[in-house]
Write a structure and sequence with these properties.
Layout lengths: L1 H24 L9 E10 L2 E12 L7 E3 L5 E5 L3 E5 L5 E4 L2 E2 L1 E2 L5 E2 L5 E5 L10 E3 L6 E2 L6 E7 L21 E8 L5 E10 L4 E8 L5 E8 L5 E5 L3 E5 L8 E6 L11 E7 L5 E8 L4 E6 L4 E7 L1 E3 L7 E2 L4 E3 L8 E3 L8 E4 L1 E3 L5 H35 L1
Parallel strand pairs: 13-20
Antiparallel strand pairs: 1-2, 3-30, 4-7, 4-29, 5-6, 5-10, 5-25, 6-27, 8-9, 10-11, 10-24, 12-22, 13-21, 14-15, 15-16, 16-17, 17-18, 19-20, 22-23, 23-24, 25-28, 26-27
């Protein structure tokens, strides 16, 4: 009996050593969760019959350290939750490893080639349905300019001008500013605004598109404190000609916030909406889980949002690798949300979660296992010597 008990101890310690060795070997594995061997007594009726490893417990709820990578498609979850991926058979797997990329078809995949799950682009304020995330890799169309916002100071020290400005004679106007406008095909047009002071409280603005002769477009009126009090006409529109197959357009110019103080004339805002078409140049994650596609025209577009799954009993998840799990009846059904919503942890982009292995504790465990192994070996040696002595006495 003593042989069997000591042998069971050695076998259990060997299993424990395998767990400890696996923990140490994965100390640098992203998203790895350490395991612990739980010993249990073995009984034959009421008779103690040794020991065994009754179960293995993974420390899923203990987060590892966050390690910065700087890569746009790397992400770590700060708190509870798992990234969700779908395998080719349609099964859902859950992981803490946020190493993502796009395949040849533009589908977002994880480090194992499985399709990452998330929500489609928002439509009218609501997220799209959950499924594979597709990153469009083509061009985005141009958007025609409809508005230009101009804010600045038009100097009260300007001299009065008369007549229509002559672009070739700078003495016929006080200042000229150019704004960029795009037509429906993304072709760029230059809108030149010539400012000419016509009175103590009025400044006329003449417009020229694409080098055409300037035409009067607006009169700006200021009070005795230099604050803009009105424009005539109220809505200032400048026509964009139809060229190269593009539709004719109209741009509204807004001077709200412009002043007429003494001193130098300045421009603080000269911003137009609209843009030319742009080619896809890359994609990266935002802290809210949004997948943002970037284009050559400096525009961005949200093409999806990562889903994060939480469980009522995450410790009961079934491990299919050291960094991936599947749900079961004990873990409960996955609850899906976007990062930072509900029980889901926040997202740290440009970073990955490291292993939660405590090397010091594992080394202490190794020494403890060594002593236990030596003790059980001593029992076997002593039992062998006792049996040898007994046989010699017979």
């Amino acid at each position: 009996m003593s042989f069997d008990i000591a042998l069971s101890g050695i076998q259990a310690i060997n299993e424990s050593l395998e767990t400890t060795s696996n923990n140490i070997a994965n100390a640098a594995t992203y998203g790895f969760k350490s395991s612990r061997a739980n010993f249990a007594s073995v009984y034959a009726g009421t008779q103690a019959n040794g020991v065994e490893v009754g179960s293995l417990t993974q420390t899923i709820g203990q987060n590892g350290s966050t390690q910065t990578t700087g890569r746009g498609l790397d992400a770590a979850i700060d708190g509870r939750g798992f990234f969700v991926s779908r395998d080719p058979q349609g099964g859902m797997t859950y992981t803490r490893v946020g190493i993502f990329s796009t395949d040849a078809k533009g589908t977002l995949i994880d480090s194992n080639g499985k399709m990452v799950q998330g929500y489609g682009p928002a439509n009218g304020g609501a997220l799209g349905p959950m499924g594979d995330i597709q990153v469009p890799t083509g061009q985005i169309p141009a958007v025609a300019t409809t508005k230009v916002s101009f804010v600045g100071n038009l100097s009260a020290d300007w001299s009065v001008k008369s007549g229509t400005p002559n672009p070739t004679d700078s003495t016929t106007y006080n200042m000229v500013k150019q704004s960029v406008a795009y037509d429906s095909l993304g072709q760029q047009h230059t809108v030149s605004a010539y400012f000419a002071k016509t009175g103590d409280k009025t400044i006329d603005v003449y417009y020229s598109v694409g080098g055409a002769a300037p035409a009067k477009g607006a009169t700006l009126t200021f009070d005795d404190k230099g604050v803009l009090t009105g424009t005539a006409p109220t809505t200032i529109s400048v026509g964009i000609p139809a060229t190269g197959g593009a539709a004719a357009g109209s741009v509204t110019i807004d001077y709200t916030g412009t002043t007429k103080f003494a001193g130098e004339a300045t421009t603080t805002t000269n911003r137009s909406d609209g843009y030319a078409s742009g080619a896809f140049v890359g994609v990266e994650l935002s802290p809210d889980g949004s997948l943002v596609a970037k284009y050559s025209n400096d525009q961005t577009q949200v093409v999806g949002t990562l889903a994060v799954a939480t469980f009522a009993n995450e410790g009961a998840l079934q491990a299919i690798s050291d960094t991936s799990w599947t749900a079961n009846a004990a873990s409960g059904t996955a609850l899906y949300n976007t990062p930072g919503v509900g029980l889901s942890g926040k997202l740290v982009t440009g970073a990955l979660e490291g292993s939660n292995v405590d090397i010091t504790s594992e080394l202490v465990g190794l020494m403890t296992s060594q002593r236990n192994y030596q003790a059980n070996s001593k029992v076997l040696t002593t039992e062998s010597q006792m049996m040898q002595s007994l046989m010699q006495a017979l």
